[in-house]
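Pasting as-is:
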Amino acid sequence: MRQRMKVIPLAAGNILEIRVGSGLNLPIYDKEKVTHLTAIDPSREIWQKNSIDVQNLPFEFAFTEAFAENIPEDNNQFDAVVITYALCTISDTKRALEEVRRVLKPNGKLIFCEHGKAPDKVTQQWQHSINPIWKRLGGGCHLNKDIPFIIQENGFKIKTLEKMYIPGWKPASFNYWGTAEVY
């Protein structure tokens, strides 16, 4: 939760959150900055496990069952797109980030917090060897995605980037977080 708290308050204006899951980020948004939040997730069942009273959020809110690879929103609509711990499970990250670029307003920003490829070779070897089993057990989660590379290779310029191991099982605990803008 601590990592999410570093990036979620950066979101301002009309926001899209990709793979909202059960809504863990909703209480972290800065009510003074957010005017509207649209949340998408491919699993209505996971969304329905949320414990947030969305009727009493301090900003307008809408949930849509949808995949990141096919965002059912208009072009140039959002000031920011938030993705936390979801790029690891999105199978077609290229298509998903094309969609993010499409729905972002000019000068909009991508706000992200993800786990991924570790910097040290020993942990990388563990990530690569465990990954085939892990992704089957973890709902498609990949331990070894190179998050900064994926973001930059898909039309974004990273503006801020922090990275570190957080407490936990080392193959799953190297985190990246920051912001990016469309080239």
